[in-house]
Structures are given as C-alpha cells and as structure tokens.
Design a protein that fits this description.
Elements lengths: L1 E6 L12 H12 L3 E9 L8 E8 L2 E8 L5 H21 L6 E5 L1 H14 L3 E5 L11 H12 L3 E4 L2 H8 L32 E6 L8 H11 L6 E6 L5 H10 L6 E5 L3 H10 L2 E4 L8 H8 L4 E4 L13 E4 L4 H13 L6 H12 L1 H20 L3 H13 L9
Parallel strand pairs: 1-2, 1-5, 2-4, 5-6, 6-7, 8-9, 8-11, 9-10, 11-12, 12-13
Antiparallel strand pairs: 3-4
Helix pairs in contact: 1-12, 2-3, 3-4, 6-10, 9-11, 11-12, 12-13
Length: about 400
C-alpha cells in the first residue's frame, strides 16, 4: 500500500531526538512492506525565496520531504503558510503519480492539513497522537478546535496509550480509537552478554530529559535513603535539559556526588550500550504518555522500576518490573531496595522477548498495516465482509502474553 505520513514532529539536525518515535513508526510501516513518503513541515527562516522551501531526499531508505516555511511574527499567518505548504507539496506528489491509499498524520496539528487533503482527494486519514497536553489538560481554545476538527474527521485515532486516549476523549472528541504503542528497534536494543556486567557494583540507569516532569528530586531523595540500607550501587543519568545544573548541585548537597554520574546527551546507540551495562532502569516521572525509553530498557532485558505516571503501568507487569506511586520518595526508595536485592528473579531473555512481542517493528508494522487495509476497503467501498473482518480484528485483537501477569 502507498502511505503518506504528515507529521508535526520529526528528527532534525538541530534536534535529532525530536519525534524520533514517529521515525520508528515509519520504519515499522516500511519494514512491513508498505511504500511510504514522509512530509515534515517546520517553521524556518524569516527570509525565504518564497512562502516555503523544501528538500526531497532518502532518509533511512524512506523518501522524506522536509518543508521549511516562512516565519512571520504572526501566529495565524504562520499556520496558514504551514497548511499551504503541505497542501502544495502533497498536490505535487499526487500529480506526480504517488496517490496514497491512506494519509497517516502524527499529532493533531498535522491532522488538520491531512484531513483537508483527504477530503479534497477522497483519501482516508488516520491520526496518531503522542502529546501529553491532552491528559494534562493544556490545550488552548485554538488547539482544542484544531484537535476536534482533525480527529472528528479521521477514520481512526491512534493514541500510544489508553491513558492518552482518555485525555483525548475528555475534550469531547469521539471516534474509533485503537491504541498503537511506540516502536522499539530491537536490532539496537537487545540483551547484553555476560561479560558486559559490572561485577563490582549494581548499576541503576535513568535516561531522559532533565526537567521537573521527570521527578528527579524524588529519585535523589530516594537514593539518599537507599544509601543507608545498601552501598554497592551507582546511578547513571543519560540526558540533558534545563534542570541539569540544578540537579548536579542537588546531588552534591545531598552527598551523592560519588554515587551519581551525569553523562549528558547520548545517541540512541550509546543509550543502548548504557542499558546493556545496567542492572535496573528507573523512571521516577510525574507524567508520561508512554515512555519509549522504558520499553527500550525492557527490550534490552533489564527490569524496570517506574511510577504509575500514565503510560508505563499499562505494560509493566510484576514479571518485568515494579510500579510505585509518583512523587512518593519512600515508595521509590523501598522499590529500589527490593529490586536490587531480587535482581536474580528477573529473567533477561524473557523480559526482552516480552518487549519484542509488543513493540518490535513487525508487531507495530502489522497493526498499522491492518488499520490501513481497513481504511482503504471501507473508503473504497470494497469487500464489505473483508472490511468487517479487519475492523473486528482491530477492536478485539490482543497482544500475546508471554509472561504470566
């Protein structure tokens, strides 16, 4: 099938991790065999040769069109140019022979031009949503209007977690929902060999943006308590952010400077290396729509201690980790103490298989392809029985359970 991705977020040279989970979704679609073109439009320079400029290249084997549109000081004008640029590039693709059978938008704001193009050319639209603004109730009136317009006209709405779905529905949006989680590159995130283990100390790992929503002060307080019970551990922090300097000072003030190491921003390949050296992954967040790094940690075969912050509790079972309340220092400390003392109870191979069966390229690619097929059949007025069968599969299909819950 021919699929057109229109996405509001996508990795760039300036920010290589922005929307990287959307790039992984695209790879999953391509791996499953669908032909895909990606359009990503972002605000560019204040001066361009026209309203917008674009490049058309192959990235990771996928044709990727990047639009840079004129930046004016007026938000409404910016958004109109954004819509216009995507419309014109999409028209160029269709007239050039690439007529998508489905348009897959990522983020509600990209869903607006996707729906307009879909209505102009009779193409069904699905929208994947990743933004935490829905469950956190952060949408402005304009954003709420845009989200309702896009999602109420989409054939399917695909949030990455049930918690995010509830947040979307809280805005009065109704439609057909199917939770499609983020993707883990299991060729990159896989279990370590025995000789990669640090036998001198137990290594705890955190990966993420260093900002208040990640709950790091609670983790530091929990570690200060943990230090009274056991000492043979080290926390590696991979990531950067606006609160890094504050956290470095906090760690020093709490007497943890010898136990906590800040490694800064690292590439995905380097993150995978850190995970293979870790014994335990910790996520002290106050809120997450999904937490791709948690899924990546599981794929690497390490158990996870996470908070019930929105997304992780939907896939972390007692066999692969432990869930504690967010913002609870004592529960976090007790959880760390328990898991470090019971690491032998967690089977690395089973944990990795558990994650692969849920988040691997083939798994997510199949789910998305089934969505696309159902849309194309329904929209084209094809085999009604086939369409009903596809829809029934989507609504009732369950993820295989490899580990007892």
């Amino acid at each position: 099938m021919k699929i057109l991705f229109i996405t509001a977020w996508y990795p760039t040279k300036q920010n290589p991790v922005s929307g990287i989970f959307i790039q992984e979704h695209a790879k999953a679609v391509a791996v499953f065999g669908d032909e895909i073109i990606i359009i990503h439009s972002e605000r560019g320079k204040t001066h361009t040769k026209g309203p917008y400029e674009f490049s058309d290249t192959l990235e990771n084997g996928i044709r990727t069109i990047r639009i840079s549109y004129f930046h004016s000081p007026f938000r409404l004008i910016n958004y109109l140019i954004y819509l216009w640029s995507i419309l014109k590039v999409s028209q160029k693709l269709i007239r050039g022979g690439f007529r998508p059978e489905v348009i897959h938008a990522h983020i509600y704001s990209a869903g607006v031009p996707a729906v307009i193009i879909g209505r102009l050319y009779g193409i069904p639209v699905v929208i994947s949503e990743h933004w935490s603004g829905f469950p956190l109730r952060e949408l402005t009136l304009m954003e709420k209007t845009m989200a309702r317009f896009a999602m109420n006209h989409a054939q399917w709405i695909l949030p990455v977690s049930h918690n995010l779905q509830k947040g979307i529905e809280a805005y009065g949006i109704r439609g057909r929902f199917k939770v499609i989680p983020n993707v883990v590159d299991t060729a990159l995130f896989y279990p370590r060999k025995n000789d990669q283990k640090d036998i001198d100390k137990k290594r705890i790992l955190f990966v993420g943006l260093l900002n208040p929503i990640k709950g790091m002060p609670y983790l530091f307080k929990a570690l200060a308590q943990l230090r009274k019970k056991q000492y043979d551990w080290q926390l590696d922090i991979v990531g950067d952010g606006p609160a890094r300097m504050e956290y470095e000072h906090l760690v020093a003030d709490m007497g943890l400077a010898d136990k906590v190491i800040f490694h800064g921003f690292r590439s995905k390949k380097e993150v995978a290396g850190f995970m293979r050296k870790a014994d335990l992954f910790v996520l002290p967040s106050l809120f997450e729509t999904f937490s791709i790094v948690t899924a990546e940690a599981l794929a690497t075969g390490i158990p996870v201690l996470a908070t019930s912050c929105g997304g992780p509790e939907e896939f972390i079972t007692n066999d692969v980790g432990l869930i504690v309340p967010p913002g609870d220092t004592e529960a976090l400390s007790n959880g760390l103490d328990y898991m470090l003392n019971h690491l032998r109870n967690y089977a690395s191979g089973q944990i990795s298989l558990y994650a692969t069966e849920r988040f691997g390229f083939e798994r997510i690619g199949k789910q998305l392809h089934t969505i696309y097929s159902a849309c194309a059949i329904e929209h084209g007025g094809g085999n009604e029985n086939a369409s009903r069968a596809e829809t029934n599969y989507l609504e009732h299909e369950q993820v295989p359970i490899l580990i007892d819950q």
